[in-house]
Amino acid sequence: MATLQRLWRHLTTTQRNARRAFPAATLKAIQHKIAEGEVTHRAEVKMIVEGSLSLPAVLNGVTSRNRAHELFAHYRIWDTEENVGVLLYVNLADHKVEIVVDRAVGRAIKSAEWQAVCKTMTKEFASGAFHDSTLAALEQMNGYLSQHFPDQGRKKNELSDKPLVL
């Protein structure tokens, strides 16, 4: 059962909060950073920001991790030719960042490295520095992906680089 505190956070955090945290200029910079990284590696990165979960989801105990997996499937991030899809998911109400990766990426890059990316991203969130910390985390992520999946000159862009705000 959801705690009252968590329930309250999800009821009071809206898509407007997500748009304030990630305004158009920040979303454009994120899209550029994803595209810039995908020139150096073969992975496909998708970022999704969600203000909060629905009331039924919260009451049913859906976690940010559960939701990230659901979105990974829904947006077919797993459906890349080399199994190199990566989802960077932010849930503002839960104050969580989740990274879900496809099979090939999961075998190559250890969870400690993904946790470091999450920490880079969230360390400045409390002060409202969503722009800079997100770009720094994407830079770090691109470094890991470039190391393990260097571009070999024949990659096509299989997923849109444009971040989504739900």
Content-based structural category: alpha/beta
| Uncertain stretches | none
Radius of gyration: 16 Å
Architecture per CATH nomenclature, i.e. the level-2 architecture: Roll
* Major sheet: 4 strands, mixed
DSSP, total strands = 4
Kindly state the percentage of residues in helix.
Answer: 40-55%
Query: Looking across the biggest beta sheet, what order are the strands in?
Result: 3-2-1-4
Number of helices: 8
Strand content: 5-15%
What global shape is seen?
Answer: globular
Return the domain count: 1
Kindly, what is the distance between the CA atoms of the first and last residues, rounded to a whole number of angstroms? 24 Å
CATH class: Alpha Beta
Quaternary organisation of the protein chains: single chain
Instruction: Encode the helix/strand succession as letters.
Output: HHHEHHEEHHHE
What's the overall average pLDDT, rounded?
A: 93
